[in-house]
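Backbone-to-sequence.
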């Protein structure tokens, strides 16, 4: 079981660098995810993005803010690749290989 700080490379070239606890990603780290085509840097808990972090997809879209169990959720900024920016409380569906369109937001409030 992995514990402490280290790197883990997958067969598809994806790479995680950061903290481990009980064999799972936990604490601060960064991940290049080639399978789902995004990069994330921030907090992890039980192998999921959880806490505060930043995710950028290959098309240039970026979400920076709160994450809950792998899902962007809470205070954050979502900048879509077409220069459309959302500031506020964001509730998005679970992370996908491409970012959701502005129309697919589940809810939004200031």
């Amino acid at each position: 079981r992995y514990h402490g700080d280290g790197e883990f490379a997958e067969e598809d070239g994806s790479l995680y660098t950061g903290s481990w606890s009980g064999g799972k990603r936990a604490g601060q780290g960064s991940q290049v995810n080639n399978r789902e085509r995004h990069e994330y840097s921030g907090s992890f808990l039980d192998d999921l993005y959880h806490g505060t972090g930043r995710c950028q997809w290959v098309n240039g879209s970026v979400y920076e803010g709160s994450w809950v169990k792998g899902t962007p959720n809470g205070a954050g900024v979502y900048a879509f690749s077409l220069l459309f920016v959302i500031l506020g409380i964001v509730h998005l569906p679970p992370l996908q290989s491409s970012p959701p369109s502005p129309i697919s937001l589940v809810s939004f409030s200031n």
